[in-house]
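Would you mind giving me a polypeptide sequence along with per-residue structure tokens?
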Amino acid sequence: MGTSPERPVISRVDFHFDVMCPFAYQTAKWIRDVRAQNGLEISWRFFSLEEINRVEGKKHPWEREWSYGWSMMRIGALLRRTSMDDLDRWYERAGRALHEEGHKPHEPTVARHLLEEIGLDPAVVDEAVADPTTGDDVKADHDRVVAVGGYGVPTLFFPEVLDMDGEPERLFGPVVLDPPTGAAAMRLWDATTAWLEFPYLFELQRPKNAMYGGVIADRLRPYLDARDWVSIDRGQVIPIR
């Protein structure tokens, strides 16, 4: 009988996100807790829900003067050029503002205020939008996910674990509503990285009935009230209320 390969030790992960995504935000809270416990190195990368869900005939997000998640990520792209930590702090603050506090970090005035709040220059907002190459950075990260069949966030890439084509392994998720902390966070990390042992394990999902739908809507209320767009979840439109 053959033996299973040893589970690889993971010290780095590329975490693709869109600031607009409430589930990526929850997963980011979890993975920061993992990082605090095991020293994981997180490289924050982008993905555009606006682009992946774009209706044919509508403008691409980079064709708009200001484009919600896309423009927020352009701010992040400029910050990342000099400091991954600044991007980390910006994503945490902008995400918390939208998904927990019900503010609108996708509005330039709010975006400037949030940068100032975490000790960064509010002029970064205007500098990022004035520099077309920040959009190139976002698009390159987005295209990386699409090229391997990805369709949403959170998507995690594992640079230390290669697939049979020699490309970094990647997983969509985990999608959590209440991100675990402490020992539970590490158990979820172990369960997540265990998938990397099985290259043809594609999906494991808990179906969501009406009860789950109600809980999700209740937990996401700050985000639902603050957003100025229609959300799309795997083809199901979540209308603006």
Remarks:
- The longest strand covers residues 155-162.
- Residues 34 and 185 are 6 Å apart (CA to CA).
